[in-house]
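Standup, Tuesday
Yesterday: got the pipeline producing structure tokens again.
Today: sanity-check two examples.
Blockers: none.

Example 1:
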Amino acid sequence: MIHYSDEKIINDIRENREGSISYLYKEFFTLIRSIVVKNSGNNEDAEDVFQDGLIVLFQKIRLEPFELNCSLKTFFFAVCRNIWLQRLDRKWRLHYQADFVKESANMYDPNLSGIDEEYLEKTRLCQTHILALPEDCQKILMMSFAKHSLSEIAESLGFKNASYAKTRKYLCKNMLRKRILNDPEYKTFFKYD
């Protein structure tokens, strides 16, 4: 098997060559899968984390002056580990937050004991997928939901112009839509024939 140096991988990513991506998958995926599976995840979670880690790596290499202070493998491992730990934190926070809202509603108004469980589950499903998106996508979508203009989004996030913000918003919405549609829980809440 061919061994790629960190410099070659970084240059290949900058120049959009695909060989290094296959190499990264072969060399790094097993390591990422082991950390995810050991920490309450499964293979699908590991694939998502790996993909998101690649997105972060590509953004760092292409959009920023990128200086590596450790091996690329160590850097990528740290990125993926942080992504997974953030997801676990959000997952548990959302889970307990929804339970707290339901219990609080029941405690203060006994007539609300029939709080719409399905609404809470749908909301939790959507929030989970929004929070699993890369941080820039979360910001774009949250600002969009809050009715900020594309120029405001571009200015706030340091994009070149509103047109670029529009493109990014479109990509983020599609990423969110695909995540929700691929979630097995989606079919139980949103029944379309």
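Example 2:
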Amino acid sequence: MKRETKIFEKKLVRTRNMIERKGLTMIKKALRDQYRSFVDKAKLYSPDRWIEATEFISEDPIKEYFEKFYQMTAPLALMTYKQMKGEKSETDDLWLGIFQEKMRMYVSKMAGEKITTITGTSKEKIKGIIRQVLEQAEIEGLGIEKITMRLVQEVGANLRGNAVARAMAIAHTEMIGASSYANKQAADSTGLNYKKFWSHSGLEGVRETHIYNQQYTNEVNGINPDELYPNGVMFPGDPNGDPGEVINCRCTELYEIV
């Protein structure tokens, strides 16, 4: 891999990290909105029917997060496009709009299952909390008012605790998947022949398979755009990849013109 490619990677990752921080704030809010809307509705039910009320947990906050967050990666695609073309384009707004539309179309196709999974996880976590509270309340002989208060408190406590870790995992994973796809679209849009390279993050705990991806692509001087990496994914964060290869990945895909 060329030195200038590694220099560009640093710029790309800095911008990506900035976007990810915004995305983390967005997914925290989305999960918070899910929980709060549930509690508002559940309060209308008796405690023994709170589990039924979990069916009212809406996918809308998570859907809105995906739609906005994926389009936020368009500037990364523009950076890649300009770097590969070796020019300071005077049509930045045009290409930015093109990449935003590509990301909008992409998320509309691939995000449905993820949105349902994230919402389903919220439901199961809340159901677990409700069961624990009701079991303990029966032992303590609590009345309906006190049970309801405890349910509200425990659901809120889970949101402040476990949901934060969930939000970070979601933001990390979706940032890599979205940015990798955006960059791939940028590379394809140049109309140039290119090779792709895997670059792992160098952070503690990086997967052995990701280290090998980098070693392999460097050894062969890049692989073809439509070729899978040795670990079976098309790009870092590939939603079609094995979850063990995708979740919390921090790697980057880079390109060099043939």
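Quick observation on example 2: The chain has a mean pLDDT of 92. The longest strand covers residues 194-199.
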